[in-house]
Specification:
Pfam family, one: PP-binding
Organism: Chitinophaga oryziterrae
CATH class: Mainly Alpha
Helix content: 55-70%
CATH superfamily: ACP-like
Largest sheet: none
Protein name: Acyl carrier protein
Order of helices and strands: HHHH
Strand content: under 5%
C-alpha cells in the first residue's frame, strides 16, 4: 500500500467515523484536538484502523502520535510490517 493511498484511506474514515472537517486534517495538525478525541474515541479509532488496514494496534502506540503525520507514519510502518510477513 502506497503512502498516498494510506493518507486518502485514513482521511476518508476519519471524516466518516469521527465527522472531522476534511479542511482541518493536515499533516501538522494535532490529531486529538482536530478529532476532539476522548478515551473512548481512541478505542473506536483502534477498531477502525484494525478493520481498514488489517493489523492489531497496541493502545500504548498512541502515546507517541501527536499529529496526523505521526498517525500516517505509524499506519504506514505497520502496513509495511504486515506486508513483509
Amino acid at each position: 500500500m502506497e503512502k498516498n493511498e494510506i493518507i486518502l484511506t485514513t482521511n476518508a474514515f476519519l471524516v466518516e467515523e469521527f465527522e472531522a472537517n476534511p479542511e482541518n486534517i493536515k499533516p501538522e495538525a494535532n490529531l486529538k484536538i482536530v478529532l476532539d478525541l476522548d478515551s473512548l474515541d481512541y478505542i473506536d479509532l483502534v477498531v477502525v484502523i484494525e478493520n481498514n488496514f488489517g493489523f492489531k494496534v497496541n493502545p500504548e502506540d498512541f502515546q507517541s502520535i501527536i499529529t496526523f503525520q505521526d498517525f500516517y507514519d505509524y499506519v504506514g510502518t505497520r502496513v509495511k510490517q504486515k506486508e513483509l510477513v
